[in-house]
Amino acid sequence: MAPIPKVMKAVQIEHTGGIEVLQYKDIPIPTPKEDEVLIKNEYIGVNYIDTYFRTGLYPHPKPMVLGREGSGTVAALGSAVPQSLAFSNGDEVVYMGTSAYAEYTACPADKVLKTPSGVSSSDACAALLQALTALTLVEEAYRVESGDWVLVLAATGGVGGWLCQILRAKGAKTIGTVGSEEKVATAKEQGADVVVIDRQGQGDVVNTVKDCTNGQGVAAVFDGVGKDTFERSLECVARKGTVASFGNASGAVEPFLISKLSAKNAKIVRPTLFNYIYTREEYEHYSDELWKMMIDKRFAVRIHDIYPLRDVARAHTDIESRKTMGKLLLKP
């Protein structure tokens, strides 16, 4: 392999704010710690959580290089990377970590996976974080069974699209919300049985749920929107049902009285993917399931657009507009 240079292009923030705080600049290439892998990025995933760190909703020390996932090739290995992981320089890999908005990223070896044969680097990057989020939601936040009615908010978003595909494979019946008429066909193509156009919480979601479930409500709501939809999600869930609130696209859910849940004996979970894949065993279990879905069942990987790394501000503007469908990627 070519020698590793001393500096690289990266996107760094020194304080929180709007897209104006995103700095495309030269910084030193990280030296991998003993348990880390240095990866030359080919693709970098853009996720809504990146905007939370940029705006300060999720506090983090500064300066900070944004980004939680990427794919590329192994450029160097730390001295104590376990031989059991069988990494070598030049291996094609995909990872979840931090500081991905850069030409090179140092990532803990236990969060790096070899990209399987039959999956492209772009598809691996596009799928990893969002598809694993969806997969763990339907297995652990609420274990979906065949025949369950489920409500998925933002059904054509990155996680929402994967949820619809997985729920269809499980035999569930899915009600999906979308923000415009243009997204209806895509939501149905990905697996939603019923689609509601829901502009800023104005869609007739509650009555649609009642009509589909004979007034019983849905077994689970997967709500990545947050503040604007939380009360409605509680209204839509069935007795003994589960609301999985996993995102804050409209802002963080405000504090509420826990006694509110007693009206239906409802359950609330606020999961994060990383606590479902905390161990290497958990990570490999769910990633193996993902690769099987992509290779054997031919689940669709929808990529909205691939942006040059220097155009990261445009990517953030687009994802915050909620007008995208599928994954946004950056390319160094």
* C-alpha end-to-end distance: 18 Å
Main sheet specs: 7 strands, mixed
Order of helices and strands: EEEHEEEEEHEHEHEHEHEEHHEHE
Shape: globular
Low-pLDDT ranges: none
Number of helices: 9
Radius of gyration: 20 Å
Strand percentage: 25-35%
Number of strands: 16
Q: What's the overall average pLDDT, rounded?
A: 95
Describe the structure using short key phrases:
single chain; 332 residues; alpha/beta; 9 helices
Structural write-up:
The model has no long low-confidence stretch (mean pLDDT 95). Helix 2 (121-141) packs across helix 3. Helices cover 28% and strands 27% of the residues. It has 332 residues and is α/β, with parallel strands linked by helices. The protein has 9 helices and 16 strands. The chain is globular.
Summarize the structure.
With 332 residues, this protein is an alpha/beta fold. Helices cover 28% and strands 27% of the residues.
Topology record:
Blueprint: E1 7-13, E2 23-28, E3 36-46, H1 48-55, E4 64-65, E5 69-77, E6 92-96, E7 104-108, E8 112-114, H2 121-141, E9 149-152, H3 158-170, E10 173-178, H4 184-190, E11 194-197, H5 205-212, E12 218-223, H6 230-236, E13 237-245, E14 267-269, H7 273-276, H8 280-295, E15 303-308, H9 312-321, E16 327-331
Parallel strand pairs: 9-10, 9-12, 10-11, 12-13, 13-14, 15-16
Antiparallel strand pairs: 1-2, 1-4, 3-5, 3-7, 3-16, 5-6, 6-8
